[in-house]
Amino acid sequence: MDFTEIDRDDFRRLLNDIGNTHMPFGKFGPGNYPPSGVPIMDLPPEYLMWFKERGFPKGRLGELMEMVYEIKGVGMDSLFDPLRQAKGGRVSIRKARKKSFDFDE
Question: What pTM, to 2 d.p., does this model score?
Answer without folding.
Answer: 0.79
